[in-house]
Amino acid sequence: MSISLQFFGAARHVTGSKHLLEVNGKRVLLDCGMVQGPRKISDKANRDLPFPADSIDAVVLSHAHIDHSGSLPRLVRLGFKGDIHCTNPTEDLLGLLLPDSAHIQAHDARYLRKKGHRVEPAYDAEDVATTLKRARGHTYHKRFAVCEGVEAEFFDAGHILGSSMVLLSVDDGSQRLRILFTGDFGRKDLPILRDPDEVPACDYLITESTYGDRLHPPRTDLQETLCGIVEEEIRDGGRILIPAFSVGRTPIVVYFLGNLMAAKRIPKLSIFVDSPLSSKATKVMAQNPQSLTTRPVKSSIAAATRSSSMACVMWPMSRKASPSMLSEVGSSSRPRVCVKPAASCITSSRASRILEIAC
Ligand SMILES: [Zn+2]
Predict the structure, then answer these.
(1) Is pLDDT of 301 > 80?
(2) Cα R_g (the chain), whole angstroms
(3) Which domains does the chain have, with CATH numbers?
(4) Distance from Cα 268 to the centre of ligand 1, integer Å
(5) Structure-model confidence comparison of residues 175 and 215, the more confident one
(6) CA of 247 to the centre of ligand 1 (A)
């Protein structure tokens, strides 16, 4: 009779979340994240998983961000045959993020081969397709069986669409424990997402503290900060580039800009979301209204995903559509804003100003 926990990622460093729970010989993996960072470290870490893939009986996933889900196709490629439990919206987002991850790896490998480096992606589109078939979507607040001796229930973590705290009820025959894994924990009073659920009672708490030494500014300050910077750039005749994470942050930035325009605090802008992934993820949000806040923003998000309803926002849904939309925005007489994936802004030389918004 035994219960044990091991931490293989996101401990003493960030990204690569993988926590292994073992109960009477059954092995449940909490998250299976990709290590992100310098290629020398991340390539090896993402190829060589720290446990035999076929020894894992089931995965329980807190949310869809790649540093928590991005090694699932590698796990499947190396022999994992079990179920991947997650919330229903997380299952929807995995259908966007994992194919995107495979695409980026294939693109990088082609580029590096041209430079004379031998690089093999950790997985390909076929591994992703097999992985997605293993996903089992669940609703919040409904307990389900993971394997013999382990049950789980999802609580809203308020971090991104579908994000969850996982409450595990573990029974090894001699003791019962409630183990709570928070995943990434969100904040209250943001638009669009629901506030996090109250943290349920537990015997053991597993949490990650990437931003644990910082305090969030109030939500109203974020919108005011954005307003001030946009006003200043428009006065200076600049174009505005906003780095934002594709899943979760982009619609919040667009929402704040929409609010400011509606209140006539800033002039009408031409906004280009330079990321088909952001556009599709925002559409998934609109398709999951039950997971959004009950504050009156649902319809704004649904409208924001249809360019005809919010004419000043361009949401390309494919890489092919991006260039023509970009030229349409470029020819607009309105001040222009481009919202881009944060990582791609690092190398951009076209920005006149980068805004950092600590959401
Ligand atoms: Zn996250």
Answers:
(1) no
(2) 21
(3) 3-206 (3.60.15.10), 219-345 (3.40.50.10890)
(4) 32
(5) 175
(6) 9
